[in-house]
Specification:
375 residues; mainly alpha; 6 strands; 54% helix; globular
Length: 375
């Protein structure tokens, strides 16, 4: 009786996914046959993705718009908030502090590094959303078309499972795994970025300055977030993504406040979006005057000008990207181990740490010790 019960026990979501991935591991890529309507749909998705993938601002808005229409897809909002941080990091390179610490050529390389990653994730994730949305209209899953969009067979398995189970958290964590794994060879292990960014002193300087803060504004001047110190580690990036997901969605009241903040503060790339009492997208400084310390305990000193944080539009031109590299990152079904949720207590308190970061950057800017690493 016990044996019979065990055999008939319904598989868990992760067991079902593992079973499917084990079978698909060695399947050839893009095996399904296309009909005329499939070709038209794929072309429509490619065009729509390209239209939305112009720059960090357009991508970030597209994620939020999709989430507001399909709130069951949690990653869309997580992606929106993380993409906001990507935009802030991009404009920091043209803002108050980093131009005093880095040469233009160095800042250009860093921007291209951030922009390439932001672009790659969108052109992989957004078509998944569009195919899901079209499947809802047709009342049938269309994930067999993923392979024609260079989307991993891992995500085909995950989305098919989601279609049946509506298990949102599994889908979200799987997308974290997928996007970080997708970036691994294309950006993190890319020889050019290894040489010009990841192995250079400036990258470790950012780490020392805790410049890898991910901030989630909500309410009035409130921040939640977490910090990544080992960007080059795929494992650490995936774990960070899981922690950020937990921070965003574990408390419904905070989530609602964050969503309302995002709706009421369109992303511009300027840190003025969340702290206008400290940052301004207009440079209030006077050329030629020496830098003076203006911050104390995350407040501007009396009558001091605000910290310059430009909009993305006024910082960087749009980039025409080369086509993404082909190939599926998925080779080992044991990546499903990441899908297991662990009860990890993360309070998300980041305001004090972020304030100290700003103060360290001020001190560095005051020292005017520019660091050169591109010879």
């Amino acid at each position: 009786m016990c044996i019979l019960f065990t055999r008939n026990r319904e598989k868990s979501v992760i067991e079902s996914i593992t079973h499917e991935l084990k079978k698909k591991k060695h399947l050839p890529y893009a095996t399904s046959k296309l009909i005329k309507s499939d070709h038209a749909l794929l072309e429509k998705i490619r065009i729509k993705t390209q239209e939305m993938n112009v720059n960090n601002v357009t991508r970030t808005k597209a994620y939020l718009d999709f989430y507001l229409t399909h709130p069951e897809i949690h990653w869309a909002f997580l992606g929106h908030m993380v993409s906001r941080n990507g935009g802030w990091n991009m404009t920091d390179l043209q803002g108050e502090f980093l131009p005093r610490l880095m040469q233009k050529k160095e800042r250009d390389v860093f921007f291209n590094f951030l922009e390439r990653g932001n672009w790659l994730i969108f052109q992989d994730a957004y078509p998944q959303f569009l195919l899901y949305e079209e499947g809802l209209k047709q009342n049938k899953p269309l994930f067999h078309l993923f392979s024609y969009l260079n989307i991993s067979i891992f995500m085909e398995t995950i989305w098919n499972n989601f279609w049946r189970t509506k298990e949102t958290s599994t889908l979200t964590i799987a997308m974290v795994i997928n996007e970080q794994s997708y970036l691994e060879k294309r950006v993190v292990q890319n020889p050019y970025y290894q040489k010009s960014v990841l192995n250079k002193l400036e990258f470790f300087l950012q780490d020392w300055f805790s410049f890898n803060h991910i901030l989630f504004p909500y309410g009035k001047r409130n921040l939640l977030g977490h910090t990544l110190h080992q960007f080059e580690s795929l494992n650490e990036r995936i774990l960070l993504g899981k922690r950020l997901y937990s921070l965003l969605f574990r408390n419904e009241q905070t989530l609602n406040q964050t969503v309302e903040w995002a709706k009421n503060h369109p992303h511009t790339g300027s840190r003025k979006d969340y702290w206008p009492h400290i940052f301004n997208n207009v440079n209030e400084g006077i050329p030629g005057f020496a830098y003076q310390l203006r911050l104390k305990s995350c407040q501007l000193k009396s009558k001091e000008r605000k910290i310059y944080s430009p909009s993305l539009e006024n910082s960087w031109k749009n980039v025409n990207h080369e086509e993404s590299e082909k190939g599926d990152w998925f080779t080992d079904w044991r990546v499903v181990d990441y899908l297991t949720e662990k009860d990890e207590m993360i309070n998300g308190e980041i305001k004090d740490e972020y304030c100290k970061t700003l103060e360290r950057l001020e001190l560095a800017a005051l020292a005017k010790k520019a660091i050169h690493f591109l010879e």
